[in-house]
Amino acid sequence: MVPRMKKVSFAEFGGPDVLHLVDAEEPHAGPGQIRIAVRAAGVNPVDWRIREGQKLGAHPIELPSGVGLDAAGVVDEVGEGVEAVEAGDHVFGEGFNTYAEFAVLSAWARMPEGLTFEEAAGYPSVVETALRLIREVGAQSGQTLLVSGASGGVGSAVLQIARDRGITVIGTAGAANQDYLRSLGALATTYGEGWVERVRQLGHVDAALDLAGSGVIRELVELAGTPRKVISIADLSAPELGVRFSGVAGSVPEALAVAADLISRGKLHIPVEKSYTLAEAAAAHIDSRAGHTRGRRVILA
Ligand SMILES: NC(=O)c1ccc[n+]([C@@H]2O[C@H](COP(=O)([O-])OP(=O)(O)OC[C@H]3O[C@@H](n4cnc5c(N)ncnc54)[C@H](OP(=O)(O)O)[C@@H]3O)[C@@H](O)[C@H]2O)c1
Fold first, then answer.
1. pTM over 0.90
2. Inter-CA distances, 281 with 154, 165, 191, 201, Å
3. What is the pLDDT of residues 96-149, one digit of tens each?
4. What's the CA gap between 219 and 240, in Å, rounded?
């Protein structure tokens, strides 16, 4: 009999109620891939954007579809041509349909000592995004980077990577996350009425990132002095103001190596705000879509 597993799946685009926990055939590692017994899967806004049918990439999503990109777990199959990893290793990385008992990964690294699976699943894609943004906006040691929407997954990674590189960060977030931003080494202020002036009071801005897509591109350009020093990952209208929208992922293996190094040196820690079971995937999407996650949300398989 073909082995079966539990997996979160949707057969039509729509709200969180299209998600179902189904019995499915187990996936297998192809050449250059590994399969893991998933222990935890990271919840990313892109997961519910895809479920809603938002047009994000060049490739159409085939239905029915699984959900999830990030995962941490135990290697149990190694594909052709894969070296330096074996069954039983604890890894974190990116792959396909990770809200499941088993998933195939296309990029992975060994988990740093002392990290739980739950924590590890939160790092891969946000660290890739953070490294890409810091590189693309050209922030250098000694400069100040303004981050709008700094307390979520990507923001938490940007703040800590920037600090490790000697970049000062001014972060905006809600009132409840001011101490959190400061704990990550940032200068903090709230978004909303009067925020531009509050940022000015904190210092000169050399470059700015829009992570929240809250319609502040014009103000970020004003603060950074030029659209060339502003990048958005969340506002598709940014190019209308001459600001780059960054949407093409960089090297995930490189991001995992950087994450593992920073975590091992105690320079990167992204807290998990809440964990869910596979059966609670819809609740995880509702909570993520509300847009106020501190750190990460994770699904435990
Ligand atoms: N283009 C790409 O390559 C790419 C890659 C990754 C993510 N993304 C997108 O980038 C966005 C952020 O991702 P994420 O994983 O960091 O999301 P997240 O974990 O949900 O974080 C969202 C953060 O935005 C803050 N926020 C909410 N309303 C705000 C406002 N009006 N002004 C400033 N900040 C506000 C929240 O802070 P408070 O809780 O303090 O309000 C929250 O911490 C998502 O839209 C995601 O789809 C794009």
1. yes
2. 21, 36, 30, 42
3. 999 999 999 999 999 999 999 999 999 999 999 999 999 999 999 999 999 999
4. 14
Both tokens assigned to 80: 């052709």
Rounded to 10 degrees, what is the CA torsion of 288, 289, 290, 295?
30
CB atoms within 10 A of CB 120: 27
* Tokens matching residue 41: 């899967």
Q: Is the CB of 149 under 6 A from ligand 1?
A: yes
Torsion angle (degrees, nearest 10) of CA 157, 160, 163, 168: 60
Residue nearest to atom 19 of ligand 1 (CA): 152
Question: What are the Cα distances from residue 222, in Å, to 83, 144, 170, 219, 234?
Answer: 49, 15, 15, 5, 18
For 212-253, what is each residue's pLDDT tens digit? Answer: 999 999 999 999 999 999 999 999 999 999 999 999 999 999
Q: Is 151 in the pocket of ligand 1 (CB under 6 A)?
A: yes
Assigned token pair, 182 = 């400061």
Report the distance separating Cα 93 and Cα 106, nearest Å. 8
Q: In what order do the strands lie in the sheet with 20-25?
A: 20-25, 4-10, 65-66
Check if 65 has its Cβ closer than 6 Å to any atom of ligand 1.
no
Cβ–Cβ < 8 Å for 245, 236: yes
Sheet strands (E) in the chain: 4-10, 20-25, 34-43, 65-66, 70-78, 90-96, 102-110, 144-148, 168-173, 187-190, 207-210, 230-232, 244-245, 272-277, 296-300
Q: Which two tokens stand for residue 87?
A: 């069954």
Give the pair of three-digit tokens for residue 167: 């970049």
Distance from Cα 236 to the centre of ligand 1, integer Å: 14
Label residues 88-112 b or e (16+ Cβ within 10 Å = b): ebbbbbbbbbbbbbbbbbbbbbebb
Determine whether the shortest distance from the Cβ of 148 to ligand 1 is under 6 A: yes
